[in-house]
């Protein structure tokens, strides 16, 4: 009957509309990207993650360099301490002989033991000899001190050697990981249709800043425009971000570590209003990117794998802070 058919048809139509509306408003599956942007977005995310890993590698390399420098100093100290210990042992042995000659009641076996004992045994035996003068006690104290210093230095050398081997293993593993990530990044660049642009035939001229340290750093940065990004690179053919800034300031006589976070700790903090050409601009909360400010709101930096050294607006990414080397 009409009175029953119409409501049923209406109910069915309403149910169909409800299903279509639900499907239309349902969220897209996780990881889905707008058509035509998936490759670009994946490329940008992968490039940023790769830069984080590269800066971690740079930090490990700085740590290894520090360990090697400490080991070299310690190696020289070990040689000096060993020579000093030999001198003090000879002096103590002569003291033992004098003590025996001055106190003939000592058994011959005791003297023989004194002259052939190890350092600890020699000290214990000498301390048992009575009527030692103040000067003689100083000789024993110097021998004991030299022995302790040499033992501590040898322990430190063993610790540094272990630390250095661990750092070298970490560097090798990190390098392998970076190379894998770069191959993945290259595949994403191909998918996105991105090609590394050719270096410009003529680079922009740097501003006239005089002959100070900052001016030298800025002129150096301008001269690198168009050079390729090279992870771990500090020139002359390619750079990563912290490699470029450290190389720029090295030409001005200022040594900076090859790592963005370490550079942040090394520079004088300044405000945005205080920034001048030559100052460094640091990016992201964990400070894994850095560029050199060149004036008029621009930096020169090595952006990421696949993009050459270039000029960029300061605000191209979240700024963490500003710093002045020197």
Automatic annotation (TrEMBL):
Record's signal peptide: 1-32
Lineage, highest ranks first: Bacteria, Bacillati, Actinomycetota, Actinomycetes, Micromonosporales
Keywords from the named record: Coiled coil, Hydrolase, Protease, Signal, Thiol protease
Coiled coil stretches, renumbered: 40-77, 168-195
Protein name: NlpC/P60 family protein
GO molecular function terms attached to this record: cysteine-type peptidase activity
InterPro entries assigned: NLP_P60_dom, Papain-like_cys_pep_sf, PG_Endopeptidase_C40
Residue ranges of domain NlpC/P60 in the record: 211-326
Zinc recorded as keyword: no
Protein family according to the UniProt entry: Belongs to the peptidase C40 family.
Example GO biological process: proteolysis
Gene3D superfamilies assigned: endopeptidase domain like (from Nostoc punctiforme)
